[in-house]
Amino acid sequence: MRHLLSCADLDLATATGILDLAEEMQQVQSRPVKKLPALRGRTIVNIFFEDSTRTRTSFEIAGKWLSADTINVSAKGSSVSKGESLRDTMLTLDAMGVDCFVIRHSSSGAAAQVASWVRAQVVNAGDGQHEHPTQALLDAYAMRQHFRTVGAEGFAGKKIAIVGDLLHSRVVRSNVLLQHTLGGEVVLVAPPTLLPTGVENWGCQISDDLDPVLGEADIVMMLRVQRERMAGGFFPTEREYTARFGLTEERLAAMKPDAAICHPGPMNRGVEISSAAADAANSLVLDQVAAGVAIRMSVLYHLLGSDEGAVH
Ligand code: CP
User: What is the pTM of this model?
Assistant: First the structure.
């Protein structure tokens, strides 16, 4: 694997290989000395042009636990704030001998564009409203662990409902692509104003009524209402949105037995998800966060851990 830009880059064997290796990587998390020598001598630059808590931190931890040298660069504090272009910034850092860029950018397609400019390998850590492949991988990891606890193996026959602001979500695109590769069935639930253009061609059932879907879904993934990307009125009021599309305490009680709740974070408690649901026993929210480190260790190892992907 040269880059990880999209879940469309992952065939079944590669996706399963990343999930399987992440299980081994997760064991490092519970050791007193959290260090493997696998990426000693490799240099990873995490360059984030948008805010992040989970993704940036877990990529940094993942790189450090694999003994890579990890450097964080953010637009604020770099020469981007003086007007340097994305291309010049990336070529400048590339010229320093970086092995891998982990990049987040507000423009859809930015990670692929960067990959076409630089010699280093590139991981897309979220590009605009396009994709967030490592998020979908960690979601799948947490779901697979959950399915095992309820006596099921794999994704075949599993119904994953993805609910909320699909229009502005990069998580939904990556999840749909990955779930279709793994064999899961995805149901999309949103108000018509928050559906992306062309969603009817994604191969998913689409609904604007959460209640009947709740009784059938094995996983209910709630997506954040992305207020910062909303210029106009996509729904009348937040209260009305919550009443129709929120995972309220009442809806929590209506979920199928053995079903679990996911949210990629950050959460708007009281809007798309109630605190009762976010903190419920069947909430995988913190399992997803924990899986983030293991998945990112696995991805970095797949990219940089063998000579196959090396460019220098
Ligand atoms: N889920 C996610 O990408 O979170 P951050 O924005 O905190 O990285």
Answer: 0.96
Pocket test for ligand 1, best of 47, 53, 168, 226 (most atoms within 8 A of CB): 53
Residue nearest to atom 6 of ligand 1 (CA): 52
**Closest C-alpha residue for ligand 1 atom 5:** 52
Ligand 1 centroid from CA 281, angstroms: 22
Residue 296 lies in a domain: yes
Which pLDDT tens digit goes with each residue over 120-135? 999 999 999 999 999 9
222 shares its domain with 173: yes
Q: How many domains does the structure of the chain reveal?
A: 2
Q: With contact defined as beta carbons under 8 Å apart, do 202 and 176 qualify?
A: yes
Work out which ligand 1 atom sits closest to the CA atom of 125.
3
- Å from CA of 214 to ligand 1 middle: 25
The answer on 276 and 138 residing in a single domain is yes
- Residue 172 CB coordination number (10 Å): 29
Answer yes or no: is 1 within a domain: no
- On whether residue 275 sits in a domain, the answer given is yes
Which residues 6+ apart lie within 8 Å of 3 measured at CB?
9, 111, 115, 121, 122, 123, 124, 303
* Residue 284 shares a structural domain with residue 295: no
- Structure token pair of residue 127: 């590009």
Gap from CA of 135 to ligand 1 centroid (Å): 8
Residue 173 domain flag: yes
Residue 62: which domain range? 7-131+290-309
Is there a single domain that holds both residue 125 and residue 170?
no
The answer to whether the CB of 68 falls within 8 A of the CB of 300 is yes
> Which ligand 1 atom sits closest to the C-alpha of 126?
3
Give the pLDDT confidence score for residue 171 in this predicted structure.
Answer: 98
pLDDT bin (cut points 50, 70, 90) of residue 307 is low
Give the atom of ligand 1 at the shortest distance from the alpha carbon of 57: 8
170 & 195 share domain: yes
